[in-house]
Amino acid sequence: MSSDSVPTRRTGGRSALVIAAVRDAVEDLIAESGADKVTVPAVAARAGVSPSSIYRRWGDVGSLVAEVATLRLDPDRPLPDTGNIGDDLRAWARELYGHLARPTKASLLRASAVLADDGETNCLASRRDEAERLVERAHAHGQFTPSVRQIMDHLVAPIIYRITFEPDTVDAGFPETLVAELDRITETG
Amino acid sequence: MSSDSVPTRRTGGRSALVIAAVRDAVEDLIAESGADKVTVPAVAARAGVSPSSIYRRWGDVGSLVAEVATLRLDPDRPLPDTGNIGDDLRAWARELYGHLARPTKASLLRASAVLADDGETNCLASRRDEAERLVERAHAHGQFTPSVRQIMDHLVAPIIYRITFEPDTVDAGFPETLVAELDRITETG
Description:
By secondary structure, the first copy, chain A, is mainly α. The first copy, chain A, has two domains: 70 residues, Tetracycline Repressor, domain 2 (Orthogonal Bundle), CATH 1.10.357.10; 112 residues, Tetracycline Repressor, domain 2 (Orthogonal Bundle). In chain A, 67% of the residues lie in helices and 0% in strands. The longest helix of chain A is centred in the first third of the chain and has 23 residues. The first copy, chain A, is elongated, with a radius of gyration of 20 Å. At the A-B interface, helix 6, helix 8 and helix 9 of A face helix 6, helix 8 and helix 9 of B. Chains A, B: It comes from Rhodococcus koreensis. Chains A, B: Pfam families: TetR_C_11 (PF16859), TetR_N (PF00440). Chains A, B: Keywords: DNA-binding, Transcription, Transcription regulation. Chains A, B: This is DNA-binding transcriptional regulator, AcrR family. Chains A, B: One of its GO terms (molecular function) is DNA-binding transcription factor activity.
């Protein structure tokens, strides 16, 4: 990386490099060995930094994994905006599913489950925020929608549950099926 | 414990005591500090056995936690049998929820999420088996039911998801709501 060869007085530059290296190391190690095998010394060795610099910044391995999970489980993209809540939800669910089903992301998701124990992380809070935005926009256009609670329970929950606990049962058409079923729950009459 | 003072030639007796003590220690430690803090030395100290006897029998802490999760996450009770699939599912969901929402069980559930990574555990396979039995019995009585897949996705998944990732959002009436919504998905016409 060229920044390595350009000494600078801004400690922010060096610090940002360390942070990036440490986060990459966490993701690599989780992908290789699973989240329960990630330790501060292993992350330090992989990132080429001292364990003490990790303890100083993050406290313990749990906080570090929580931070990486929160950052990396967030698909970085604009929300779908098709003008129809059903199509928006379909695109949104497909994207969420495609993102989280990748092996590294699935491992991070499982790791973050353990951390939810202490309220250390809620890496899925952004999904709830997104569902709220989709619903609010549709309401503003006069559309009838499922509630945010129903979207979380019948669309997000089954996706997360399958990826986390029953990874062998997932298939590509799954988000479509869920959106059709969510539609049956909310249809009037 | 009286067995301690009665020497016996059956090593099974001694061995069973060790196994029980180790499993209890795992559950206690998870309840106290969370699953990510459980280590073989800590379990050994709590159970009053040597770490090497744990490594010998279980291999590593992951396998040990997986075993305890599989045993303890299983509510030990007969399946509801009301003669009506809707009532059966309501009773079943309420029981599952009541069992898993207890703090120790919720922590075990989160711990088992990490282990699902290596296919080391699927502590929820019994839930799928139970759903299959409920559905088969109702079919034998000529009743129309949701599919097992729908029961897992719209009843079990939201319960597990909320307990695992959003423990602050659960309330006692939640299983009832889900069963009513599952009913809307499957109702004909």
